[in-house]
Amino acid sequence: MSAEFQSIDEAITASYQPASQVGTQARQLEARIAKIDGTKNLLPARRYGQPVDMAKIRSNLTLTSLIAQDSAELAHFCGIDPAIRHRIDEEKEAIAMAAQALQMRTEALRQQNQQRQQQVQQRSQLSPWERGYRSV
Question: CA angle, 86 as apex, 66 and 29 as ends, to 5°?
Fold first, then answer.
């Protein structure tokens, strides 16, 4: 009879372990998604031992958008188009390049203004006949 109890105990353990592993993985995924601002309350409810319902995540436009904006890898894992994150990165890069170009242009104009100011100052220190003015 001890063999039967041992086999039932093994069967109970064997049936519990997959549910426990699924639950652990689901909690880790939920924790990863919850790190993104605004997603914690949007996560779909799930029962113990059940995986995260990716279809429910993909059907929630706000949650999908927040995940896609945060991480292309996580978006891909959840079955969300990761191209959104790539487009955001490209837009940020374009904005950074435009800001850098504007900064360079501003610096060039500042140098031109400084040179002109020095020329005006030098010219103002000259006597009228050295400046090229004729007195009448």
Answer: 40
